[in-house]
Design brief:
- There is one protein chain.
- The protein is an alpha/beta fold and 215 residues long.
- It has one domain: Rossmann fold (3-Layer(aba) Sandwich), CATH 3.40.50.12140.
- Strands 2-1-3-4-7-6-5 form a seven-stranded mixed beta sheet.
C-alpha cells in the first residue's frame, strides 16, 4: 500500500510538471557548495522571461535531491566547486525524476567534475556521458552557437564540453564543464566579465532552458 501511494504521488507530480515552466536549484550532499553563484539563476530567468518568452518565477526555489518536490519542476539546476555524494535513496529519486520526464543541468563551477562523475556512476551505473556535437539542437534552440558550448572563463584553458546523459533517446541530463556558464550569468560586478561574454552565457543558458521545456 505504501509503495502504491508513493507511485500515485509521483504520477501526479509528473503530470503537474509537464505543464509547468519553472526551474529550481538542486541542493545536494557531500560538502560541495551547491549554493554557489547566488545571482546566476535569477539573472538567467530574468533574461529568458524578457527575451525568449518564458514566464518563470524570478526567485527560484531550492529543492533537496531526496525530496518528491523535485517532481514539481521540469528543470533542475545544479552547480558547485567541490564534493558531491548521492545516497542510495537520492540516486533512486534522481533516476526516477529524470526517467519520468525531468531535466537536470549541471554546471561545473570549476573543480566539480571528478566528484560529480563518481556520484553519477552510482545513480546511473553502466551509463556513459556522451559529448554533444556542435550540431545538437540545444546549440540552435533559439540562439545560434555553431561551434558548440561557449567558453566563459578560462580556468585550465581546456576546451568547453557539453556532456549528456540520454534515456530512450531523450537528453535528460546536461553537464557543462570547462565553460562556467553560471559565472557568466552572475551580476556584472561579480566577475567583471565583458558584456559580450555575459551575453553569450545568458543566450546559451536560454537555449538550455527552452530545450528542456520542449523535450
Amino acid at each position: 500500500m505504501k509503495q502504491l501511494t508513493y507511485c500515485i504521488i509521483i504520477l501526479s507530480l509528473v503530470t503537474a510538471h509537464l505543464t509547468a515552466q519553472e526551474v529550481a536549484i538542486l541542493k545536494y550532499n557531500g560538502g560541495g557548495d551547491w549554493y554557489a553563484n547566488p545571482t546566476a539563476l535569477p539573472n538567467l530567468i530574468k533574461f529568458c522571461n524578457e527575451n525568449v518568452g518564458t514566464l518563470m518565477n524570478e526567485k527560484p526555489e531550492t529543492v533537496e535531491i531526496s525530496s518528491s518536490t523535485i517532481f514539481q519542476y521540469p528543470f533542475l539546476h545544479m552547480t558547485g566547486h567541490g564534493n558531491v555524494v548521492f545516497s542510495d535513496e537520492e540516486a533512486q529519486n534522481l533516476r526516477t525524476y529524470l526517467f519520468s520526464g525531468g531535466f537536470l543541468h549541471i554546471d561545473d563551477n570549476y573543480g566539480m567534475a571528478p566528484y560529480l562523475k563518481k556520484a553519477l556512476e552510482k545513480a546511473f551505473p553502466n551509463t556513459v556521458l556522451e559529448e554533444l556535437g556542435s550540431d545538437h539542437p540545444i546549440f540552435n534552440e533559439f540562439y545560434k552557437f555553431p561551434e558548440g558550448l561557449p567558453k566563459i572563463h578560462e580556468h585550465d584553458g581546456k576546451r568547453p564540453q557539453a556532456l549528456g546523459l540520454f534515456h530512450e533517446n531523450r537528453l535528460v541530463l546536461l553537464f557543462t564543464t570547462e565553460s562556467d556558464l553560471g559565472d557568466g550569468w552572475e551580476d556584472p560586478s561579480v566577475h567583471n566579465d565583458p558584456e559580450e561574454i555575459r551575453t553569450k552565457a545568458l543566450q546559451m543558458g536560454a537555449n538550455i532552458v527552452l530545450y528542456a521545456f520542449k523535450n
